[in-house]
Design goal:
By secondary structure, this protein is mainly alpha-helical. 44% of the residues lie in helices and 0% in strands. The radius of gyration is 25 Å and the shape is elongated.
């Protein structure tokens, strides 16, 4: 049998789906116990997200562009 290797987050997601399936089967009485409940996966926690943080000056530039767009907009609400 061929064994596949996967990243820790992928394994955790797959195991979560398997646990939910077996839990549902146990609740419905199809199985007497959940065999996946005690299966342990590799611990994984992401210390850094995939979305990069703003660098110096980017927030001001973004807010300035929004403000400039509001002033130039022809769709302004009239009082």
């Amino acid at each position: 049998m061929r064994q596949l290797r996967a990243a820790a987050p992928t394994v955790k997601q797959h195991m979560a789906a398997i646990r939910i399936l077996f839990s549902w089967l146990t609740e419905k009485g199809v199985l007497a116990m959940n065999p996946a409940r005690e299966v342990k996966t590799e611990r994984f926690s992401r210390t850094e997200g995939k979305t990069p943080a703003f660098v110096e000056g980017e927030v001001q530039k973004l807010l300035g562009a929004i403000e400039k767009g509001r002033r130039n907009s022809s769709c302004r609400r009239r009082p």
